[in-house]
Amino acid sequence: MIALLIFLGVFLIFLVYVFRKNRKTNRLPPGPSGIPVLGYLPWISSECPHISFTELSRKYGPICGLQLGSVYTVLLSDPQLVRQAFAKDAFTGRAPLYLTHGIMQGHGIIGAQGSLWKDQRRFVAGCLKNFGMTKLPSTKRDKLEERILVIVNDCTSKLKRLTMEDGYGCIDPCEMFHHYVGNIINDIVFGKIYKEDDEIWKWLRFVQEEGLKHVGIAGPLNFLPFFRFLPRYGNVMKLLLDGKLKTHQHYQTIIDEHRARPEKMDNFVATFDDAMNTYVNNEHFTQQQYYHLLADLYGAGVDTTFATFRWFLLFMAAYPDEQKKIQDEMDELLGQKLPTLEDRLILIRIQAAIAETQRLRSVTPLGIPHGTTEDTQLGDYDIPKDSMIIPLQWAIHTDPAYWHDPLSFKPERFIAEDGSLIKPKAFLPYQTGKRMCVGDELSRMTLYLFAARILHLFVFSMPSGIRLDLEGEPGITMVPKPHRLIVTPRE
What we know:
Helix content: 40-55%
Structural class: alpha+beta
Mean pLDDT: 91
Strand order of the largest sheet: 1-2-8-5-3
Strand content: 5-15%
């Protein structure tokens, strides 16, 4: 029976491949040829797909088309093309990937499209703005800053305690900062702040890390769905679905706790619950959407910000001269005063260093893939419906046509001659267009407050005798390899 199902799956993918191969259009983007069923998949590195795709984009040009299993894929490696594409409604779908649809089932905000996505994005953006996620100063933003700083200050107190005995501390930044960055998102999404040794919180962090790892391992399932009948991939799928179910059960506990106490309308649990009561029988405010939206907001809120902050600290330890320039600027402009959001107007060098970290180590090197909802065009080429569109951040952020000496860490590339902060056109850390990161400003606030407060108080360096490795471990997000850092209080 399994053999028959696999045969039918292969046959169907072959038909899709032949159909697309023989489409009447002759204006598909240039790209490599593949083989039936698998397309170009065998030639894509499973460990570093961003490198394989970047090499293709350098060879075939800024818009490159290729077949990956059953999914026709378009690589975009020019920032203007990315902006042009993602400004169109036809490119606002989600990539037709099996895991996205098999696990999320079109719920949430990451895997949603069409009217559900538009409605939920509008809802999320409105909530974040109401919570204080704004670029301009306001009373609400001040309150959000206070919420973030409660956790940042707790983090700096922990670092001080670690350094009291010997004058320095040796930390695992992954273990250390996952707790604190995660708690900022816990507060905003769930209205909860966990203690570091809370068993449920430990489990939630473990599930998140395992989920990311297994989704990476299960990559071929996205393009060859019949692989789910193979024991290895079937077991991975079961683990992912079981993890989702248990996580949703925990979310229900949080929801029940909220309903049992006086309402606080400053988190997503409270606001979505209120929306469910207001819009009864609304197909966009259902229990399943509730669970999936909470999961998306937590995962998206933690993964990229946490990974970027880990890279930032690692680069500070690797480039002590750059770290000292940041600290000298704070000393000169702030003295003993602790940095606040208001000080972003004058603390240019730390913002440049954060931007350079986001450029050089794009934590989503493939960007967040989009999908086409209809046959459309881009530039001189036809793009079929249900294509996957990859905004290839790694290629854009390391393109020598836009960046001099692109593989070097140089924060000054984000500082203008007059000392102001600049944002080059090829800098797309939060993507662009209709589906750009809805929480981009919250991420900027969090990264800045953590980085500024911690570097104002501490110096980070590498343990002696340790070889520095800045290559990272690619996956859904690119993260540093396991390492430890020395933390020393500043005098």
